[in-house]
Amino acid sequence: MQVKCVLCDHIEGLDDHSLRAKRLRNRRNQMYLCEKCYKRIDYKTKQRQATGHFHLYKKKKKEDDHYF
Ligand SMILES: [Zn+2]
Question: What are the tens digits of pLDDT across the range 9-37?
């Protein structure tokens, strides 16, 4: 089967019997990312996780304000 990367429109051929192809067929709304884009997203996600405590702090502060 052929799959198109949702980010860069790069078309890749997947072995119909591969685990990835089966997963894509089972979950039709799952977006396909080519390896290049996947690594880019993965990197961004890790960066976001690294600064995650900052967002948690902001959220907590907002909740505290609610009691005043
Ligand atoms: Zn891509």
Answer: 999 898 999 988 888 888 765 688 899 99
pTM of the model: 0.55
Look at residue 11 in the predicted model and tell me its pLDDT.
93
* Calpha distance 29→45 (Å, rounded): 21
| CB burial of residue 32 (10 Å; 0-12, 13-18, 19+) | buried
Distance between CA atoms of residues 52 and 64, nearest Å: 19
Q: Separation of 51 CA from ligand 1 center, angstroms?
A: 25
Where along the chain do its domains lie?
2-65
Q: How far is the CA of 32 from the centre of ligand 1 (A)?
A: 8
Which residues are in the CB-under-5-Å shell of ion ligand 1? 5, 7-8, 10, 34, 37
